[in-house]
């Protein structure tokens, strides 16, 4: 028994000793890196030009701690044999190329080579790896993203921003179903987003700013319901922002800027209650500010600048003060009183500059120079003329000044014979202030946004020299430099570059120099931030003899100024502003003072600059009240300027009426009024420009201007006109009768979408009255009988005109010049004759050939005949017309039914009226109104074109 116990004890002791020996051995023998991976690292080091020390263990001796974003580390899994699982070489100044040999590390999961100077292309061999993270940010890489990356289905993070990568995004990336972060900003990617990316349902962070993508913002974003961050600043995509964005309710960071495309209402974002950073900057957004923004109480930054927002600031925006740092609303058309809480001193930066606010108190001027508040040019004349210059009175400019030299961002310096004034004021994100130097020169600065971060450019071959400072320069509203890259122009860092702009006209004592950052350039070098304009100094010199002291210059003198922008490498001048200036310096006509305008004002200087001083080469039409010019605003927006003739007293009423009507209307099928200009005897309306002119010119203008309109396009045009009229009659807050619907007043944009224009004759429709008795105004051939004969006006007059225009669209013929077989007959009458004969299809435009939908053509003609029923009560409302054209309502066959007159009486009255118009001339002013062919093109009609049928036509004797 004792022997047995002894043996057990000995066995336990021996076992313990054995285990202890083995454990100790394992502690002293460190696993080594697999030999094949050791050799692969040597090849990788050679390609990267990395001087790794291969005399030590890479898994333990190559690692350094992260310091100022630099890192040199190789991570290994050493369970048995060591295998490389991650390589971090950040900010190490690598100047080699990306090694394909990384694919020889089978256990590698993370590659981070960010902030180096690596060049070449991304190896497609990496597509065979099982990577989870790839970060190549801030290098000099070129070429496309390899399509082989679609095979890395384990990938979670792909960061390629700040390179020179190009090409389309490969369809194969749609297979990366585990991808959570995709950062492609600051490259040269092109083309649309492939539909396959809709499968990236795990995506949480997408950044594609500063690229050259094409097409509209993809609606496939609706599939990325896990997104918390979406950045699309200057991505190249066009608007509008798709409505599907509403589905991304987890978003906390949404930044979209500088998108072209049609105007659109504010996108619906009401379910994004956790939003912290919302930028919708220069996105062509119209309408009012939605109240739900005030419920986003986590908001830190709200930037809605440079849009076309109207109306007042919602009262519940005061809720944003809990956490908000910045509110940027500059460059809109906002009106009403500025909320008191926005004027009071606080920590938040608030920019309301360049808007149309009104004020009831001169005391609000005391807020103009308050820190963190920018109210420069934020007030509109409105009903208080003293408010027009609010926040400009505090700029004590010398009456006669000819020179100015500023050392931007630095102290006073003397260079040669010039003293450069100091500019060392702290610039808040929202600033408007006046600066005065010892030499008594005075200038003003208006700053919007965090765009003044300083950056040092160097000639060293490392990532810090890869930064791109790209901005635009405007002089006197003229866009003189686009995508200006200062380092490229200077030929490298550390070199001065002087940009001289000659012959700048200064007519009102004010010289404006603006620097605008449009979301382009790098935002991650040297660290993540926003790096806007880079200017060292501004020098202004006259190019004419300066008058002697005390001698005044006559107001007629136009001073040509030489403006030199001296661009060194490191001093920063704040962004002055903006895209689309709508400042207010007006001498309003008294008729406009009583209007609650919801549009902006332009200066005459801006209009002249846009139209090249009303150059005849830019003239695109002649209307009854004046000429129409094509223009180009400083931000690249193409406009149409309707110039009211100063001799036309009759037209003043129509001018005022048109401003009042259109300023209150917002609809995709109504032409957009950007604003007006009233200075001296100049009365100007500024519209959006319509690339394809008028429907009349497209259908039956000179042959060289006609457009080939297929049937789907014609159908789309009819639907669009009908929707626009339905809005005017039934949906708008103001119920409006246009009174002059005709083909020349239907304009076509670049996509051939129709827009109703020329509201000079429009009338408000009082719903309490059955009709309006008014003097007749309109265009012969389009006026409804009850209106033309008796001045009996309802919205059914527009319905009648729509019917006539619809017949023109189907037939391709003008109703005022249609002459089948040399007969003199009205197009509508010809349609009725063809209907009686059962030959309605003969009305179809022969240019359509056989490529059309017969049922749709017949339906359209029947709708047109219903709309032109002689009995106004039997014409359908425009909402019903829309439903019938779109196939949602049945179309009943048109049958002319008697109204309160018998057919014989109607025919007699029609003939009498026609004879009267043959025998009597009409006044010149009325003729001008009748012949007014809208803002684009002119044509001619005559008095007898009202109902131009032969009095002995058999139609009068056989009319149903």
From TrEMBL:
GO terms for cellular component: membrane. The keyword S-adenosyl-L-methionine does not apply. The chain crosses the membrane at residues 557-578. It comes from Nelumbo nucifera. The keyword Phosphoprotein applies. It is found in: Membrane. Its EC number is 2.7.11.1. This is non-specific serine/threonine protein kinase. GO terms for molecular function: ATP binding; protein serine/threonine kinase activity.
